[in-house]
Amino acid sequence: MFKLVKYLKPFTMLIILSLVLLFGQAMADLALPDYMSNIVNIGIQQRGIASALPEAIRQSELYKLTIFMSPSSKQEILNSYTLVDKNSAAYSTFVRKYPQLEKEPVYILKKLKSPEKKFLNPVMGRAFITVSFLEEMLKDPVKAADIGSKMGFDLSKIPEGTSGGQFFKIIANLPAGQLSKIRNAVNSRFASLDDKIVNQMAVGLVRNEYNALGMNTDKVQSSYMWKMGALMLLLSLASAVLTVSVGYLSARTAAGLSRNLRKKVFDKVESFSNTEFDKFSTASLITRSTNDITQIQMLIIIVIRIIFYAPIMGIGGAIRALGKSTSMSWIIALAVIVVISLILVVFSVSLPKFKIIQKLIDRLNLVIRENLSGMMVIRAFNSQKFEEGRFDKANIDLTKTSLFINRVMVTMMPVMMIIMNGLTLVIIWVGSHQVAQAHIQVGDVMAFMQYAMLIVISFIMLSVMFIMVPRASVSAGRVVEVIETESVIKDPEKPAVFDNELPVRGVVEFKNVSFRYPGASEYVLNNISFIAKPGQTTAFIGSTGSGKSTVVNLLLRFYDVSSGCITVDNLDIRSVTQHDLRNKIGYVPQKSMLFSGTIESNLIYADENADMDTIVKAAEVAQAMEFISAKQEGFNAEISQGGKNVSGGQNQRLSIARALVKKPEILILDDCFSALDFKTDAALRSALKTYSKNSTVIIVAQRVGTVMKAEQIVVLDEGRIKGTGTHKELMESCETYREIAYSQLSREELA
Fold first, then answer.
1. pTM above threshold 0.70
2. Which residue segment(s) compose the domain that 363 sits in?
3. Which of 96, 458, 478, 640 sits at a 20 to 30 Å CA gap from 204?
């Protein structure tokens, strides 16, 4: 899989941009539970009052609060507020918001930085709780006497009917030592409370203070709820926009990579020699170019969307969950361990099957391709049942493997849901006890639950990757194997160039050429030597398997010689580029191949700049004009894929005409007269003699009648030359040729 990384370089910026957007999306998604927690904790439970540090407080109330603060904290608090009374310049501004300002001075909170607020909030909160506690205590004389004795202060000495304000003045006027003792005794009762719990307890008292100031506290709550709701909505919209953007970028990256890989595979296959085609079957190459690349494309989309996103969500969720409660972190750890164990089990079971499934797809494609290509043969031999059995076996093998993998994957979701539901129950159970003990707030328990779900979901998303990555890795390996396969036939680093000024061009010479197929132990050609000259026809004849077509393949450099050399115009064909070599050659293969399009588009395949006169002349020489003229559309008549809508003879004649349009210096006709009747064969060869009088013509044939008039006939038998000469010379000197000739024609026809 890592071998594909270098092919992603053109999409580096798209991937980086996707990561940035994914991070933004993750931050938006992770912020939502926090805002939900704030709505529950602050908006509902605290009625919209977020801080124990009030924005305004009466002078008399602040006086009571500062009694139970340390001198340094008291000074910090007083420095954070500005006293406003009727003589203040800002009086008219604040009196509308705080009507109580008409009756007594009010302290207004200055603009503070977040660290200052964070420090002062618990100080003010504990002071509020302390004052409230003492005020409640005064309402119960028995309780007051008991608590007073514990604080070292005899509350019984306080005269009956003493107001709360007078009570706090008495305490404030106590000696410093006794006041400090009382302060420590009272504060110690609330020392164990968490700052969040202190804040939650104090905001109710802050609300009472706001009511005393004449503020509309219902408006404070509604404003907070609307603000939080709007922020959550904006975050949701931002997350949606980022999700769509990342989806677009990931799809564009994956589609671009797939396009490039398909092009690279196609370009590489076009450069393959027959050696490479022997290694990769056609069905396998089709699977690699389609199914395998599709697997990679799907993986790239999911990698960008999930593999990068899930860790951010998992890590971010864990950090934020721990911020809500460290005491419940063991719940998440337990869930993660269970999920990872499940993923490892599924991964170990499914991985071997993913390596098998692509080979089974290859096998299925091979069977389908053979059946479609050989349908007429299958019907002719009534072998439909046998082929159905072959297809059923390949299909069932693939189905069984796919079903096995799907069954393994299907078990994951129910188990994951059980884990998630169990996790929810445990968090609610433990969290409810923590709430009852005032160690955590209800909103924080709800947020912790959501973060725990996000963490588990992140692992579920990663588990999907563990399922897809193995199969895509197999596909990636198969695609890269094709792209990085080095062709055994390469162009030289410093190629020679054919001299186009030579008076005679197209001279072909084989010099002691021997050849064996890669991996074979025996030679199929041994010491082949001959010269084919322009203006002459050199014909090869011999029994099946004698090596006739191999000679042609070597000349075209579909294979390279094992020993000896082949020259064209005195240049070794290995010293020039394959393009330059094949540019001099017109080739008609044994199995004629036409492409979907029109007759004209097939003929100009050899030379796209050919004019109509050249096309018509080539068709006339190939004896194709008769059936072309019979078609209503003429040269614009449609040709189906592979030339299925024309006969075998018409297919061969169009293939010959295509080679003639090129006007090559070397014309190779590899047993391409087999579908022609004798009359057409003779007429074609006669016309060809005139048309290609300046070309080197090389014919491979099975019929003696096709090669009788050739200037040079090379007789091959088991990869060796048994004779070279004209028809007449070979009839006298070559026993192999005579046997072939007499097996096909009578003595009168051979004379």
1. no
2. 270-483
3. 96
